[in-house]
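Summary of Year 1 activities. Much of the first year was spent building the evaluation harness for sequence design. The harness presents a backbone, in tokenized form, and records the residue chosen at every position. We chose the following record to illustrate the format because it has been used consistently in internal testing since the harness was completed.
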């Protein structure tokens, strides 16, 4: 991607796209300023250099189109590019360029809405001080982020084999985002936003027009759903990518979601994991696999450890394989999509191990090889009876005494504490304001004075626990990281918890069961609903890959992780309802399908609670946008 060129083009667009010209375009008239674009050679962006064109790569061209959308897309730039590049598949490029222009338009609509809600006064304060408004802004931002990721998906497809289904998924997701974003923006602007004088409609009317220009999202959904049924699996279709040698396109928008391609090495790893799962869990009933990462099997975890698939990114000296975060992503998304019972090692692999690797003492890091073997399990001591979403209200305290720390208090909703060997405990070790004086301690679960009380969930199962600390004594060396740095450490840790595919694959087993039951000859009425889920899944996978790339390079993507978690939970919770709606199209639903539906309906309420509630996440997103 040519960042210098994109910056120059963005400046050109900003200078030429005056409000008068936008109004010309919205009135159906040719907008002035086209000569400046021609002088800059932009219509020749796709033409090969041998024919006097610029011969730009797909990522750069889509970034140019996105910048055009940022200023309102007043000129027929995409059409002009394609007229001078007849060697390219026009339909695919039209869809991809439309996706990029939509993403740019949504970004500007978001910016306008942020500005309006932070300056418009109601009840003696800015609109943005209202929590409901903040949550709506977060929804708008999440749709903008999804549209940006869709551009990345389309760009990778164009740079590869030109997969029409991935480009269809990209336009479908961006087109859906266009309608949602426009609706939220008009709602938050109030009456002024629906007047001809206000600039908002100059952008939302372009969104409404573009989303249908080359086929609405419903057309693309139908094609994707039909393809998923032909493949016999939404997951198989979503992961059916032509591998590239290696390619990552940096994010070009507001949010940091680099576009990352599947490589040949990762495709081979994916095949290896699938073969392993076929031999290990194929006989598991789907209603058991539907428990996904709540399924606890020490034997399965040890087998994964023997394969080197736990602690994959850790150095060999600590039991790891020195793989990349993207390699690990391949393994965990395949495990989750199949419904493998990964709960035993899950928390230690995802959070505890990386934190100890980063901040632990040599003695604490000595636990890492056993975690990587799938033999040592951990739990997280964060929430309390009076401190759930408001984590900073926690009261569990550890005070310095002769011999170490004495802990008193209670932790709540501690998943699999009754089967864990260690707890990473967040507690108060000092004084100060809410977020101050917090530290993390590594506590063996067999320490005297520590007791675990089961909490039975709505399915009658025991995952959660209440953990009591009655003057529990741990050595001074139990401190993880710096004393008083607990809050910052936990926030960093939560980026690992919120950004992974477990935030959108928890209900995939049910969707796969439905596709198998419908079969390739399913009525056409099933196509679009299945296709919509497929489009969302493809874009969410692209976002998760971007997250893995950011974590690999040492960045802290707290805002992007919250967005993935919010969109992912919404996707997961939509699957049971979609299955219920399509169930009448299944001639004879099997007992396994009905049982899996029943289990997933009861799991669904949990997905927007664990790892941060939807409301808390939307508050985090709003703050990440600068809203206070």
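For this record, the design step produced the sequence shown next.
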């Amino acid at each position: 991607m040519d960042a210098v060129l994109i910056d120059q083009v963005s400046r050109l667009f900003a200078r030429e796209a005056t409000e008068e010209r936008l109004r010309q375009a919205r009135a159906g008239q040719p907008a002035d300023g086209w000569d400046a674009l021609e002088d800059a050679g932009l219509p020749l962006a796709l033409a090969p250099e041998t024919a006097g064109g610029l011969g730009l790569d797909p990522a750069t061209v889509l970034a140019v189109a996105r910048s055009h959308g940022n200023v309102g897309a007043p000129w027929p730039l995409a059409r002009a590019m394609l007229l001078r590049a007849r060697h390219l598949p026009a339909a695919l490029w039209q869809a991809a360029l439309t996706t990029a222009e939509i993403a740019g338009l949504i970004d500007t609509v978001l910016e306008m809405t942020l500005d309006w809600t932070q300056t418009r006064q109601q009840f003696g304060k800015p609109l943005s001080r209202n929590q409901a408004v903040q949550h709506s802004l977060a929804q708008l931002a999440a749709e903008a982020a999804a549209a940006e990721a869709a551009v990345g998906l389309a760009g990778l497809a164009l740079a590869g084999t030109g997969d029409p289904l991935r480009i269809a998924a990209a336009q479908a997701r961006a087109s859906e985002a266009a309608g949602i974003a426009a609706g939220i923006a008009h709602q938050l602007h109030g009456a002024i936003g629906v007047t001809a004088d206000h600039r908002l409609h100059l952008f939302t009317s372009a969104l409404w027009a573009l989303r249908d220009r080359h086929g609405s999202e419903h057309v693309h959904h139908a094609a994707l759903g039909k393809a998923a049924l032909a493949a016999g699996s939404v997951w198989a279709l979503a992961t059916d990518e032509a591998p590239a040698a290696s390619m990552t396109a940096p994010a070009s928008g507001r949010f940091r979601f680099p576009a990352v391609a599947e490589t040949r090495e990762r495709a081979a790893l994916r095949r290896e994991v699938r073969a392993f799962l076929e031999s290990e869990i194929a006989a598991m009933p789907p209603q058991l696999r539907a428990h996904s990462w709540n399924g606890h099997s020490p034997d399965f975890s040890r087998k994964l450890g023997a394969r080197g698939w736990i602690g994959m990114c850790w150095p060999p000296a600590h039991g790891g394989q020195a793989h990349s975060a993207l390699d690990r992503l391949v393994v965990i998304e395949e495990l989750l999509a199949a419904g493998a019972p990964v709960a035993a090692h899950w928390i230690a692999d995802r959070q505890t191990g990386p934190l100890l690797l980063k901040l632990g003492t040599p003695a604490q890091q000595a636990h890492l090889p056993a975690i990587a073997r799938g033999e040592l399990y951990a739990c997280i001591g964060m929430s309390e009876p009076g401190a759930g979403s408001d984590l900073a209200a926690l009261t569990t305290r550890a005070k310095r005494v002769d011999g170490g720390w004495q802990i008193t208090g209670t932790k709540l909703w501690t998943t699999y504490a009754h089967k864990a060997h260690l707890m990473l405990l967040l507690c108060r070790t000092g004084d100060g304001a809410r977020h101050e004086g917090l530290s993390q301690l590594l506590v063996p679960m067999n320490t005297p004075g520590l007791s675990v009380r089961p909490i039975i969930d709505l399915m009658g199962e025991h995952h959660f626990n209440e953990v009591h600390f009655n003057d529990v004594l741990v050595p001074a060396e139990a401190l993880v990281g710096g004393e008083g740095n607990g809050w910052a450490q936990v926030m960093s840790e939560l980026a690992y918890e919120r950004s992974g595919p477990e935030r959108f694959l928890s209900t995939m087993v049910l969707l796969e069961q439905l596709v198998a039951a419908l079969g390739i000859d399913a009525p056409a009425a099933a196509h679009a609903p299945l296709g919509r889920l497929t489009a969302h899944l493809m874009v969410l996978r692209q976002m998760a890959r971007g997250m893995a790339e950011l974590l690999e390079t040492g960045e802290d993507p707290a805002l992007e992780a919250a967005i993935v978690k919010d969109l992912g939970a919404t996707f997961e919770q939509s699957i049971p309802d979609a299955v219920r709606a399509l169930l009448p199209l299944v001639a004879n639903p099997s007992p396994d399908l009905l049982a899996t539906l029943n289990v997933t309906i009861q799991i669904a309420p949990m997905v927007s609670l664990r790892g941060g509630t939807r409301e808390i996440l939307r508050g985090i997103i709003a703050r990440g946008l600068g809203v206070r």
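The first strand starts at residue 121 and ends at 122. Quantitative recovery figures across the full test set are reported in Table 2.
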